[in-house]
Design brief:
The chain is α/β, with parallel strands linked by helices and about 325 residues long. Helix content is about 30%, strand content about 25%. The strands form three sheets. A seven-stranded mixed sheet has the order 10-9-8-11-12-13-14, with helices on both faces. The protein has a five-stranded parallel sheet with strand order 1-4-5-6-7, with helices on both faces. It starts with 7 loop residues before the first strand and ends in a 16-residue tail after the last helix. About 45% of the residues are buried.
């Protein structure tokens, strides 16, 4: 008896409907019909308005601000799909909120990233597709398969088109060296590090630079920025050290009003990011947004067809 592949269904909450629609356009399926609304007391209500019994269900929902609201929507959508007898539920979380709360770095604090992983599994998620986790070991917080994609191929395609020369890739802190090294290798560039000291949740202080940036074009890379404090302070000290054009490549730009103001007043010529989360409308002009819909869509298709997603990590060759 031949095994048939269950029909693929994609649903989304209210976090980033535009990205879900782009993903569906790429993979050639309509976005699933689901009602997601809020009661007057703030409770979330979900109803899936089509038959998903025996279907392979993918729920696209980044847990970006408002983080708790979007996380609850995801959990409730998953519960609705599980109770509707879907064959498998994959949570597609382009941006995984709470990822920075991944360890006990002081007494009497939670490991919230692990709690969120437990909640997703308890709700009925059977697989997770995500991108550029703040720490790769977060995959081990799940007792289910996690497919971890990278924005690097998407950003590199754009960076190659700019034909930047004499480039040095800069990590804005010691923790981002591995990511910066991957970009440096892809660009054939050297590597530098800005050493910083965090003063508060929104304030950092850049103290000195390890590496030569004088007279060079600079690409600062990081996985996430919210207030843009780290990258703008890094850009300022790099300019003081003689850097020429300064760019920033960020996987997830969860920009606040403060971040937009800082970017507009910083030496950063362009911040290059993805649509893993909705980008602040006031950031037009200083921010270039690249879509990861094709990357995530290809990941969804390969999971659905039980194929490898490893080749999605490979870079396209730099144009001659």
């Amino acid at each position: 008896m031949f095994r048939t592949t269950p029909e693929l269904k994609v649903f989304t909450g209210t976090a980033h409907r535009g990205l879900a629609e782009k993903i569906c356009s790429y993979i050639g399926v309509p976005l699933g019909d689901a009602l997601v609304s809020t009661f007057p007391d703030g409770e979330t209500f979900v109803k899936i308005n089509e038959n998903i019994r025996g279907r392979d269900v993918f729920i696209v929902q980044p847990t970006c601000p408002p983080t708790n609201q979007n996380l609850m929507e995801l959990l409730i959508l998953v519960d609705a799909a599980r109770r509707a007898s879907s064959a498998r539920i994959t949570a597609v979380i382009p941006f995984f909120g709470y990822a920075r709360q991944d360890r006990k770095d002081q007494p009497r604090v939670p490991i919230t990233a692990k709690l969120v992983a437990n909640l997703l599994v308890a709700a009925g998620v059977q697989r997770v597709l995500t991108m550029d986790l703040h720490a790769q070991q977060l995959q081990g917080f799940f007792d289910i398969p996690v497919d971890h994609l990278y924005a690097l191929p998407v950003l590199m395609q754009y960076l190659h088109s700019k034909q930047l020369e004499n480039v040095v890739v800069v990590s804005p802190d010691v923790g981002g060296v591995k990511m910066a090294s991957a970009y440096a290798q892809a660009l054939g560039a050297s590597l530098a590090i800005v050493v910083k000291k965090r003063k508060s949740a929104t304030e950092t202080e850049a103290s000195h630079v390890i590496g030569d940036v004088y007279g060079r074009n600079v690409l600062i890379v990081d996985d996430l920025t919210e207030t843009a404090g780290t990258i703008t302070k890094a850009a300022a000290i790099l300019r003081d050290r003689g850097a020429q054009e300064i760019y920033a490549g960020i996987s997830h730009a969860v920009l606040t009003d403060l971040a937009v103001e800082r970017l507009k007043n910083s030496p950063i010529k362009e911040l290059i990011t993805t649509d893993s989360t909705p980008v602040h409308s006031g950031a037009v002009g200083c921010v270039k947004v690249l879509s990861v819909a094709e990357l995530l869509g290809e990941g969804i298709l390969r999971i659905h067809q039980d194929e490898s997603v490893t080749s999605l990590f490979e870079l396209k060759k730099k144009p001659e």
